[in-house]
Amino acid sequence: AQKVTQAQTEISVVEKEDVTLDCVYETRDTTYYLFWYKQPPSGELVFLIRRNSFDEQNEISGRYSWNFQKSTSSFNFTITASQVVDSAVYFCALSPFYGGATNKLIFGTGTLLAVQP
Amino acid sequence: NAGVTQTPKFRVLKTGQSMTLLCAQDMNHEYMYWYRQDPGMGLRLIHYSVGEGTTAKGEVPDGYNVSRLKKQNFLLGLESAAPSQTSVYFCASSWDSYTEAFFGQGTRLTVV
C-alpha cells in the first residue's frame, strides 16, 4: 500500500526565513516517483518537481531545494529566504513506476505555509 | 491551450439529488483522476482511469461512479448526494501515473 505523510499541518514564518516542509512516504514498490505540488490561495495546483527512486541526488532550483533520502523514506522540500508569494499549501505525492491498472498518484494531506511580511 | 477543464465550477445540490461533473482534457493523456479536497484531509483519490474504457477505485470511491467513454473525458457522478460529499473536486490528467499531472480549476460542490 502507498501512503504519504506530511506531519506539519501549518507552518508560519517571517519573510526571508528558511523553511523545510517534511514528507515521509511508504511503499512496497522498489521503483517509484515522488512529487511536490503547490496550491496557492487562488486554488490551482501547480507541479514543482518529480524525482525517481533511483536518483537520490539533491536538487536545487533557485530558492527551492529538495532532499530525497531513501534510507528514511523522506523527500523534504526547503525554501530558502522565503517570500510572501511562497504562501500556499504544499502537497507531496507518490506513484509507482511500472505500468498497470493499479498505478495511481497518491497525495499527502498537505502543509499550509504562511509567510508573514 | 485549454489543458484540463472542469464543468461546472460551482454547484449547490439538495440531499438526494444527482449530478455529473465533467472533466475534459486536450493533451491526449491516458491517465485521468478525480480527487476531493477537504480541510485537513488533503487530496483524496476517488476514482481514476488508466485509459479509454477503463476505471478503477481510489481511496474514497463510495457514493460516486465514473465513466471514461472517450479518452478526453472523465465523468464523475453522484447518484444520491449527501452532505458528506460537500467538497472541492479536482480532476487531473497525465501521460502515466509517474509523469506530471495537470489539474483542472476545481469544482466547489455544496450539498444541503
Explain what the structure shows.
The complex is a heterodimer of chains A (117) and B (112). By secondary structure, chain A is mainly beta. Chain A has strands at residues 3-5, 10-14, 19-21, 24-26, 32-39, 46-52, 59-61, 64-69, 74-79, 88-96, 106-107, 111-116. Chain A is globular, with a radius of gyration of 14 Å. The termini of chain A are far apart. Chain B is mainly β.
Short characterization:
The complex is a heterodimer of chains A (117) and B (112). Chain A is mainly β and 117 residues long.
Helix and strand arrangement:
The complex is a heterodimer of chains A (117) and B (112).
Chain A: E1 3-5, E2 10-14, E3 19-21, E4 24-26, E5 32-39, E6 46-52, E7 59-61, E8 64-69, E9 74-79, E10 88-96, E11 106-107, E12 111-116
Parallel strand pairs in A: 2-12
Antiparallel strand pairs in A: 1-4, 3-9, 5-6, 5-10, 7-8, 8-9, 10-11, 10-12
Chain B: E1 4-7, E2 10-13, E3 19-25, E4 31-38, E5 42-49, E6 56-57, E7 64-67, E8 73-78, E9 87-94, E10 102-103, E11 107-111
